[in-house]
Write a structure and sequence with these properties.
Blueprint: H1 2-18, H2 21-44, H3 59-64, H4 70-79, H5 82-86, E1 91-96, H6 98-102, H7 108-112, H8 118-126, E2 129-131, E3 144-146, E4 152-158, E5 161-164, E6 167-175, E7 178-183
Length: 190
């Protein structure tokens, strides 16, 4: 009788374990959820594909509407940084104008836009981005800031003029995910 009771208990335990939905289905559901999430992300195109005509524009949207920043926008797209810069941030972006890019040696911009130079382009663009919001009136002379690429920039404040690594900040534009400081030079990492 004890053997029969033990056999029934073992069979019941096996049946109960095989019916446990948490243990068996967790892996399957997790895999399925990841597959669906990945498919949705691919279909949606990322954060930059969100259409919102009501909210304040983010840093990429503001730059994209500026006729003075077409080179910067092309570089951001080529470097694959559009989705990053459309996220919540907050970001402080030092945005060189087209004229600033024209000051670089001939062929520099064209060279950086080549697929094999994508890493160099990303490094330069990330040197123009600080995580956090810093308005023009919050800068101090000699202030050093760590940029996204790991490099450092130095702020200058003299007679009411603000510079970053010697480049003049000529305008500041608030955005939904930070602030853009328009600069008259391209900042190059050391």
């Amino acid at each position: 009788m004890k053997k029969a009771y033990l056999a029934v208990a073992v069979v019941a335990g096996i049946v109960f374990a095989s019916c446990n939905p948490t243990e068996q289905q967790t892996g399957t559901n997790t895999d399925l959820q990841q597959e669906i999430t990945s498919s949705e992300a691919e279909a949606s195109g990322g954060q930059s594909s969100v259409v919102d005509n009501e909210s304040q524009k983010n840093v990429v949207q503001v730059a994209a509407t500026s006729p003075d920043h077409t080179t910067l926008v092309t570089a951001v797209k080529t470097a694959g940084l559009v989705d990053v810069l459309t996220n919540a941030g907050p970001f402080t972006v030092f945005a060189p104008t087209n004229a600033a890019f024209e000051k670089l040696p001939a062929g520099t911009v064209e060279g950086l836009l080549k697929p094999e130079k994508r890493g160099d382009l990303r490094n330069i663009l990330q040197y123009h981005v600080y995580v956090g919001v810093l308005n023009a009136d919050s800068f101090e002379d000699g202030q050093s800031l760590g940029q996204v690429n790991g490099g450092r920039i130095t702020m200058g404040v003299k007679d009411g003029k603000v510079t970053v690594n010697g480049a003049n900040i000529v305008a500041s534009i608030p955005t939904s995910n930070g602030v853009i400081h328009v600069v008259d030079q391209v900042l190059l990492p050391q």
